[in-house]
Amino acid sequence: MIRAEIPSPPVSSISLGPLTVHFYALCILTGIGVALWWSTRRWVARGGNGDQLFDVVFVAVVAGIIGARIYHVVSSPDAYFGPGGNPVAALYIWNGGLGIWGAVLGGALGAWFMARRKKLPFAVLADTIAPTLMVAQAIGRLGNWFNQELYGGPTTLPWALDITCVTNGDPIGGCVPGTYHPTFLYELLWNLAGCALLLALERRFRLGGGRVFWGYVLIYTTGRLWIELMRTDEAEIVLGLRINVWVSMITMLLAAVMLVLLSRRRAARGFEAHRADGGDRTADASVGASATASADASGSVTEGSAAPVTEGASEPGIPGHGQDPGDDVSRISDGPRSESGHRE
Questions:
Q1: Angle CA(332)–CA(101)–CA(239) in degrees, nearest 5?
Q2: Packing angle between helix 122-147 and helix 211-228, nearest 10 degrees?
Q3: How far is 263 from 210, CA to CA, in rounded Å?
Q4: How large is the angle between the packed helices 211-228 and 100-118, nearest 10 degrees?
Q5: What is the mean pLDDT of residues 151-180?
Q6: Is the entire prediction scored with pTM above 0.90?
């Protein structure tokens, strides 16, 4: 068998005078930057304001990092509070250790808080950001490669990861040199493939109303489950399984249930949230088309014909038309309207 082992980086940080730059942190920040750029484009395409999204994402990122670190410390406490542990090291996030479950929960709470403050539909925000999270996570996984961490069991496969247990000239404590499954790479590729699948499903089935977000959760946890079973790094064991395995299974089940419930709600209501302006694209498009046809035929809207739906028009029972879009995020239209009522 031809060997083509993946080499481990000889350095995990560089010094710039008194400043030490950790590649793990750079990977995380790069992922956040890409997600922010892409989320902004998706949000603006839904009729939203880019500056508002930046405010939401900023708070969500801070809350997500805090949540990620708390989850890591709580789920792997021995390194910090066990025998020989260093509690202060719980603050050293540049050394690695950000739990994705805490990041998603903390980020979601931060985004929800800002959505309420700015009266934005939370479901649309979640759907907008969801695919970008998978790309951010993929980029962030490269940080584990630089740190020579979170790999699987020994293997002789051609794509095995060569762990040297030496970084910046210093040995890595508790590390055993050898070739291992590059689980960081498995998750990176899974996230990129999952992002492509999620975007395809979003377009094919016109997902909205939170279904894109829960689709992300379902896709990610499905991959994380089998990848987690391969990992050999220290973790808390609950009933014979790593705690992250349990979290993956529970979260995956929750995502599946939420997708079923939201799909049934969509079928019952006939609409769901897609845009930041509070109307459903399918329903609004038909109204706009009817109004345009009537106007073209008679030069004006005749009695009994459908009138164009303008932004902010009062329409009882339809969120976003005379209502606060933050009160009900189940109905969002697609594409900004021109003054004639068409989608641009």
A1: 130
A2: 20
A3: 10
A4: 170
A5: 94
A6: no
